[in-house]
């Protein structure tokens, strides 16, 4: 009987020792996990601070708004761990109500940084929850398995359910009409959702750039066709569009110019007939074909611009594909009239 009792006691002691070792090991891993999650959260918060400072310095906001962003970013960056959540919440509140006018690239960077903060906070709070739950068990408390490690606190940042304000920007576009009155359109897609459409060449106006220069630059970048500012008539239309592209919500005001493509004249090279661009003087072979080129496309344009087509008016009027502006086929006469008179309206009318 005594032997059996000894065996039972030894087994119980072994089980207790095993549980003691297992719990202590688990507790240690949870503390390590919590600190690692905090380090990741600090990294995400630091990245958001850097993105916020970049937005404040970019010049898209007025001086008071920029100063407020800088102040809150500095406060969040220097706050101690105990007061960091309050400082970050103040920054989140201002970012959620921040007016538009931010450059798309900076807005995308800030949105991505903010999303990473949300994810990192969730991972950290999950680790805190598991650590606190284990430390609350009677076995852990009885044997003091947490040691002198501080009890981790949750890190709370309000997650606003509202949709972020759109990025506002201005764009310049060119309605290019050839000698047979065909219109050049570019086919585009958003790889994130697979949507497809047709648009006139053009794009965002850069800081300090006027509409005409932006239209000429974008036309050259997207099509390889070079015009001078004097070759354009306009703006002849204005269009305001709200859309999501590559994950960014835009509110874009577009101004449309009318133009003819660069004239291509015959050129004799060693007795062989060729063609030359009358604007930039670059020679081509006799079989030059379509002068549109995508050689100057940016990386984003390579992913989102899928081709081009010269549309006859009857084709444009009959298509059920998405074309922007949607009224283009019904307003070609306005383009012809502007190119004939070389006079743009004093106030460009709105188009859909």
Assign a percent range to the helix content: 40-55%
Count of helical stretches: 9
Number of strand segments = 11
Q: Terminal Cα separation, in Å?
A: 96 Å
Give the strand order of the largest sheet, numbering strands 1, 2, ... along the chain: 4-1-6-5
Question: Which H/E pattern describes the elements?
Answer: HHHHHEEEEHEEEEEHEHEH
How many domains would you count in the coordinates? 2
Gist?
The protein has 352 residues and is of the alpha+beta class. It has 2 domains: 133 residues, de novo design (two linked rop proteins); 175 residues, Nucleoside Triphosphate Pyrophosphohydrolase, CATH 3.90.79.10. It is built from 9 helices and 11 strands.
Helix/strand layout:
Layout (H helix, E strand, L loop, with lengths): L1 H56 L5 H16 L5 H13 L7 H33 L1 H6 L23 E10 L6 E8 L4 E5 L2 E3 L6 H13 L9 E13 L2 E12 L4 E6 L2 E6 L5 E2 L14 H6 E7 L1 H6 L4 E2 L7 H10 L11
Parallel strand pairs: 1-6, 3-11
Antiparallel strand pairs: 1-4, 2-3, 2-10, 5-6, 7-8, 8-9
Helix pairs in contact: 1-2, 1-4, 2-3
Describe this structure in words.
With 352 residues, the chain is α+β, with helices and mostly antiparallel strands. The chain has 2 domains: 11-143, de novo design (two linked rop proteins); 167-341, Nucleoside Triphosphate Pyrophosphohydrolase (Alpha-Beta Complex), CATH 3.90.79. Helix content is 45%, strand content 21%. It is built from 9 helices and 11 strands. Strands 4-1-6-5 form a 4-stranded mixed sheet. Strands 10-2-3-11 form a 4-stranded mixed sheet. α1 runs antiparallel to α2 and α1 runs antiparallel to α4 (104-136). The protein is elongated and about 115 Å long. It starts with a helix and ends in an 11-residue tail after the last helix.
């Amino acid at each position: 009987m005594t032997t059996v009792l000894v065996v039972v006691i030894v087994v119980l002691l072994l089980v207790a020792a095993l549980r003691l070792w297992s719990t202590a090991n688990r507790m240690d891993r949870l503390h390590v996990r919590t600190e690692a999650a905090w380090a990741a959260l600090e990294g995400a918060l630091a990245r958001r601070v850097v993105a916020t400072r970049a937005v404040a310095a970019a010049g898209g906001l007025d001086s008071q708004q920029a100063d407020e962003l800088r102040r809150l970013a500095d406060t969040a960056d220097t706050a101690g761990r105990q007061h960091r959540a309050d400082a970050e919440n103040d920054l989140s509140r201002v970012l959620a109500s921040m007016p538009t006018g931010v450059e798309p690239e900076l807005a995308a960077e800030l949105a991505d940084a903010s999303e990473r903060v949300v994810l990192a906070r969730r991972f950290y709070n999950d680790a805190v929850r598991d650590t606190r739950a284990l430390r609350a068990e009677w076995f852990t408390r009885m044997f003091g398995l947490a040691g002198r490690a501080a009890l981790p606190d949750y890190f709370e940042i309000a997650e606003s359910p509202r949709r972020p304000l759109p990025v506002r920007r201005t764009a310049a576009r060119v309605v290019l009409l050839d000698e047979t009155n065909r219109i050049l359109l570019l086919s585009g897609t958003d790889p994130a959702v697979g949507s497809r459409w047709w648009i006139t060449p053009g794009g965002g106006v850069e800081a300090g750039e006027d509409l005409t220069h932006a239209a000429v630059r974008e036309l050259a970048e997207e099509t390889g066709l070079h015009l001078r500012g004097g070759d354009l008539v306009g703006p002849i239309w204005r269009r305001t569009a709200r859309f999501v592209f590559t994950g960014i919500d835009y509110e874009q005001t577009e101004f449309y110019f009318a133009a003819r493509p660069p004239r291509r004249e015959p050129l004799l090279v060693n007795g062989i007939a060729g063609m030359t661009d009358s604007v930039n003087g670059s020679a081509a072979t006799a079989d030059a074909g379509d002068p549109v080129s995508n050689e100057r496309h940016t990386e984003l344009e390579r992913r989102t611009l899928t081709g081009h087509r010269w549309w006859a008016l009857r084709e444009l009027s009959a298509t059920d594909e998405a074309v922007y502006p949607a009224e283009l086929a019904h307003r070609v006469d306005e383009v012809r009239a502007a190119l004939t008179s070389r006079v743009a309206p004093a106030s460009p009318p709105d188009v859909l």
